[in-house]
Design brief:
Layout lengths: L1 H15 L5 H9 L8 E5 L7 H8 L4 E6 L2 H9 L5 E6 L12 E7 L8 H11 E11 L3 H9 L12 H11 L2 E7 L4 E6 L6
Parallel strand pairs: 1-2, 1-4, 2-3, 4-5
Antiparallel strand pairs: 5-7, 6-7
């Protein structure tokens, strides 16, 4: 079970796996259209590598909910003492009990390939976003590089990125619009919006 995999590696995750180049994380955060004071859901928080950059985006009046299904990962994130309106929730996105229309933005940093049911996850994210809210899927490595790494690890060898057009189709079928997929050689980002319905 992948939860066991992540829990067993939580203690060494920051040293052995997590992105250590703060400039790359900062550059990624700068690309996210998240305003000061926003309410943000961070899915797959892990040990909190991306949390300080999200807190900088939303400022002191913003709210950040950190969600992860691996309790040992979240424990480490909590010990880092992040300041701000921040809360932690141990669950998986596919089976969460958060309220409809709760967030201005949802961020999936370095977690998208690990969704067991990507369509169900997208449906839940769509439900949780306010009208006009954005989903950001982002990685500081390329889609191809991440797939190659995952294929080399037995426990997550099937945790792969779909083809870009398959990702676009899944998002569109759920209801997202204004979908942008940037599959770069050193990073990967998807932006999708829950549009305001004009009557």
């Amino acid at each position: 079970m992948s939860r066991d995999f992540f829990n067993s590696r939580a203690a060494t995750w920051d040293d052995e796996v997590a992105e250590k180049d703060a400039s790359r994380l900062e550059a990624m955060a700068e690309r996210l259209d998240i305003r000061l004071g926003a309410s943000v859901l961070d899915i797959g928080t892990g040990t909190g590598v991306f949390v300080p950059f999200l807190l900088n985006k939303i400022g002191s009046e913003g709210k950040l909910v950190c969600l992860d299904f691996a309790e040992e990962m979240l424990k480490i994130a909590k010990t880092k003492g992040f300041k701000g309106k921040i809360s932690y929730l141990c669950t998986d996105i596919e089976n969460n009990r958060l309220a409809d229309n709760s967030f201005d933005a949802v961020v999936c940093y370095s977690v998208f390939p690990h969704f067991n049911d990507k369509v169900k996850a997208f449906k839940e994210i769509y439900r949780l976003l306010k009208k006009g809210g954005n989903l950001f899927i982002c990685h500081t490595s390329s889609r191809q590089a991440i797939n190659e790494v995952h294929q080399s690890i037995p426990e997550v060898c099937n945790h792969l990125f779909p083809e870009n057009e398959d990702t676009r189709r899944m998002l569109s079928e759920v209801g997202f619009e204004d979908i942008i997929i940037n599959d770069g050689k050193d990073n990967y980002m998807v932006i999708a919006r829950k549009l305001v319905v004009v009557v």
